[in-house]
Design goal:
Blueprint: H1 3-9, H2 17-29, H3 31-38, E1 48-52, H4 62-79, E2 86-91, H5 97-110, E3 114-118, H6 124-133, E4 138-142, E5 151-157, H7 168-178, E6 193-196, H8 198-212, E7 222-226, H9 236-243, E8 247-250, H10 276-285, E9 289-293, E10 300-305, E11 311-314, H11 316-333, E12 341-346, H12 352-360, E13 363-367, H13 371-381, E14 386-392, E15 396-399, H14 408-424, H15 429-440, E16 442-451, H16 454-470, E17 475-476, E18 479-486, E19 491-493, E20 500-502, E21 511-515, E22 520-525, E23 531-540, H17 548-566
Parallel strand pairs: 2-3, 2-4, 3-6, 7-8, 7-9, 12-13, 12-14
Antiparallel strand pairs: 1-5, 4-5, 9-10, 10-11, 14-15, 16-23, 17-18, 18-19, 18-21, 19-20, 21-22, 22-23
C-alpha cells in the first residue's frame, strides 16, 4: 500500500475512535504530515525502535508499541516453550512513557508472561541490573535517550541484561513483522504484574557502591550534578551519599523530571550547552567537578578544573581514558591482573585504549558501535576471561558486568573516586588526564553530526556513504590513506598495495580511513536518528604540561580541515 492507503486503513477497527479521528484530520488538513506518518513502518531494528510519538505506522503509539510487544511475546513463548517467562520494564520521564509502559505490560501479561514494572521512572542501567537480579528472560526500556521531547522509544534486553544481538534480534524482528494490528492482545492480566520500587533500588545502589567505590575519606570533594530533568535523580544522590560524598549540589532548575526538558535545547550531555547552567552553578559553589546525565541516565558528561583553574568539559574519550586508567591501576595494585583480563571499546572510539591496555598488560577488544557488542564480549568470555571495563566515545562507560549497558550511575561514582584521589594529592582530574597523555601519547577526537530529516534525508545519507565507498579519498589533509576498513563489506584494504583482509565483525554500514600519520576518519549513519556522523581522531606525543596548549591547537587545526573535507 502507498501512504494514503495505509492511512485509510487506520479509519476502521481495530483502531479506536480517537485514532481514527486524528488520521481523518491529517487526511483533510495536513498531507505532508500524513505522508511522513504513514510512508513506511517504523523500523523495529536490532535494538528496538525509536521515533516521534503520534498516529501512523511511522510513529510511536498504542498500536506500534503493541505490535512490537506482541512480536516479542510471540518470540518468548516459542523460545521458552512450556516455561514460566518474566520480563522487566522500565521507562524514562518522557511524555506518555508511563502510559506506554503499562500498555506494553498489558500485552505481555495478556500473553501469559509475568511482568516486573517499575512503579516510576528509573535509569536504564537499573533495568539492565534488574533483568539479571530477577532472573528475567527479557527486559524493556521505554526511552528515546537524549532525543527531542517529541520522541520516545522501545529497547529490548536479553536475559543477560544486555541489548539483544544476533541471532536473537533477527528472530524477534521476524516475529514483530508477522503481527497484524488486529492480533495484538491489549487486555492485560494484573495478577501477573509486580511493581518494582525502593527494594530493587537499594539492591542496585548497594551493588554500584560495592564495585565503584575504592577510597575512604571523601568529605571534601565538591560535586555539582544535574540530571537534566531525567531519571538519574531517583538513585544517583543516594549512591553518592552511601559512598561517602557529602558535598553534592544538585542544580535546582534541572532536578525535577520534565518531559519537555525545558531548560535545555537538547538533554544531551555530549553537547556543551546542556551543561551550561551546571557550569555556572559550579562556579558559585566553587566545585571541583561537574556531572550531567541524559534522560535515561546511561550517558554522562563531565567537567573539571583545567590548568587555568576554569571548568573544562571532557569529551567521551577523555573521560573514559581517565576512568579506564584508574580501574586498571587499581586492579594492578591489587594483583588482579594475570593475563586473562580484557577491556572493551568500539571501532569509532579513540585508539588510546589500545595503548592503555598494553601499558597494564591486558587485552583491548574492539567491537561495532554500541554497548550491546561490548556486553556480547562479556557473555562469550564468561567463565574463561574477566571483563574489567569498557567504553565508547559517545559519553558512555561500563564498569564490570553487573550492568551490561552504558551506566552513568557507576561511572559518576567512579569519576568521583578518581577526583578525590587526585585532590588528596593536590591535583585535579585534568592533571590526571595529562599524566595519561605523557604515558601513552596524546589523542584528540571530535565528532560532527549532519542531520538529514525525512524520506529525502535518508536517501541523501545513503548517497553520501555510497560516494565515500565507491570513490574513497587517497589522501586526507595531505596525509596518505594507508587503510580503509569497510564494515559493510567486511574488508580492510590497503589501497597502496591492494592487499585486502577480512574483518571478523558483524556487517555494519561504517567506513573508517587511516593515514600514515595516525589520523583516523570514520563515517557512520546513525541507527536511531536521521543523521550521519563523522568521527575524527589525531594523535601525537606530549612530554610535559606546558606543551599541551600548542598540541591541542595543532590537533584542532587538523580536525577543522577534516571537517571541511567531509562537508
Amino acid at each position: 500500500m502507498n501512504y494514503s492507503e495505509r492511512a485509510k486503513s487506520w479509519l476502521r477497527e481495530p483502531f479506536d475512535k480517537d485514532v481514527q479521528k486524528e488520521v481523518q484530520y491529517l487526511i483533510e488538513n495536513n498531507p505532508e504530515e500524513l505522508e511522513d506518518a504513514f510512508y513506511k513502518d517504523l523500523e523495529f531494528g536490532t535494538g528496538g525502535m525509536r521515533g516521534i510519538m503520534g498516529v501512523g505506522t511511522n510513529r510511536l503509539n498504542r498500536y506500534t508499541y503493541g505490535q512490537a510487544t506482541q512480536g516479542l511475546a510471540n518470540y518468548l513463548v516459542k523460545e521458552y516453550l512450556g516455561k514460566k517467562i518474566s520480563v522487566a520494564i522500565a521507562y524514562d520521564v518522557r511524555h506518555n512513557s508511563d502510559v506506554f509502559a503499562k500498555i506494553v505490560a498489558d500485552v505481555l501479561t495478556a500473553n501469559g508472561i509475568h511482568v516486573y514494572l517499575f512503579k516510576e521512572f528509573r535509569p536504564t542501567p537499573e533495568l539492565s541490573f534488574a533483568v539479571r537480579e530477577l532472573n528475567c528472560e527479557a527486559g524493556i526500556v521505554l526511552t528515546a535517550s537524549h532525543n527531542p521531547p517529541e520522541y520516545n522509544g522501545f529497547k529490548v534486553y536479553g536475559k543477560d541484561g544486555a541489548q539483544i544481538v544476533p541471532p536473537e534480534d533477527e528472530a524477534i524482528i521476524q516475529e514483530v513483522r508477522k503481527v497484524n494490528y488486529s492480533e495484538i492482545k491489549f487486555n492485560g492480566d494484573d495478577t501477573k504484574l509486580t511493581y518494582l520500587g525502593e527494594d530493587l533500588d537499594q539492591k542496585f545502589i548497594d551493588t554500584v557502591t560495592k564495585h565503584a567505590s575504592f577510597l575512604t575519606g571523601k568529605k571534601d570533594l565538591k560535586i555539582v550534578y544535574t540530571p537534566l530533568h531525567g531519571t538519574s535523580i531517583q538513585v544517583l544522590p543516594q549512591v553518592l551519599k552511601q559512598a561517602g560524598y557529602e558535598n553534592v549540589f544538585i542544580v535546582p532548575e534541572q532536578q525535577n523530571p520534565d518531559g519537555n526538558f525545558s531548560t535545555v535545547k537538547s538533554p544531551n550531555p555530549e553537547e556543551p550547552e546542556a551543561l551550561s547552567i551546571a557550569l555556572k552553578y559550579a562556579e558559585e559553589q566553587e566545585a571541583d567537578i561537574v556531572f550531567g546525565t541524559d534522560p535515561d541516565a546511561d550517558r554522562l558528561g563531565i567537567a573539571v578544573r583545567g590548568l587555568d583553574g576554569k571548568m573544562v568539559l571532557l569529551n567521551g574519550n577523555q573521560a573514559n581514558s581517565i576512568l579506564t586508567d584508574f580501574v586498571l591501576k587499581k586492579w594492578k595494585e591489587n594483583g588482579k591482573i594475570n593475563g586473562k583480563q580484557f577491556i572493551g571499546t568500539t571501532i569509532v572510539t579513540s585508539d588510546i585504549f589500545y595503548r592503555l591496555a598494553e601499558a597494564y598488560g591486558v587485552e583491548c577488544r574492539t567491537v561495532l558501535t554500541g554497548f550491546k557488542w561490548i556486553a556480547d564480549l562479556i557473555k562469550k568470555s564468561e567463565g574463561k576471561e574477566q571483563f574489567i571495563c569498557g567504553g565508547e566515545e559517545s559519553f558512555g562507560f561500563m564498569l564490570g558486568d553487573y550492568v551490561r549497558d552504558k551506566d552513568s550511575i557507576s561511572s559518576i561514582l567512579l569519576a568521583c573516586e578518581v577526583a578525590q584521589e587526585a585532590k588528596n594529592k593536590g591535583k585535579t582530574l585534568f592533571n590526571i588526564l595529562l599524566e595519561i597523555y605523557h604515558k601513552v601519547g596524546y589523542y584528540y577526537e571530535e565528532l560532527i553530526s549532519i542531520v538529514k530529516k525525512g524520506k529525502d534525508g535518508a536517501l541523501e545519507i545513503s548517497s553520501m556513504m555510497e560516494q565515500f565507498r565507491t570513490n574513497p579519498p587517497k589522501e586526507l589533509i595531505g596525509e596518505k590513506v594507508v587503510q580503509l576498513d569497510d564494515y559493510k563489506n567486511s574488508t580492510s584494504l590497503n589501497p597502496n598495495t591492494g592487499k585486502k583482509i577480512n574483518l571478523d565483525l558483524p556487517k555494519s554500514n561504517v567506513l573508517i580511513f587511516y593515514t600514515d600519520k595516525g589520523t583516523k576518519l570514520a563515517c557512520r549513519p546513525s541507527g536511531t536518528e536521521p543523521k550521519i556522523k563523522f568521527y575524527f581522531s589525531v594523535n601525537t606525543s606530549i612530554n610535559n604540561d606546558q606543551e599541551y596548549k600548542n598540541k591541542l591547537n595543532e590537533a584542532k587545526s587538523k580536525i577543522d580541515k577534516l571537517k571541511e573535507f567531509v562537508q
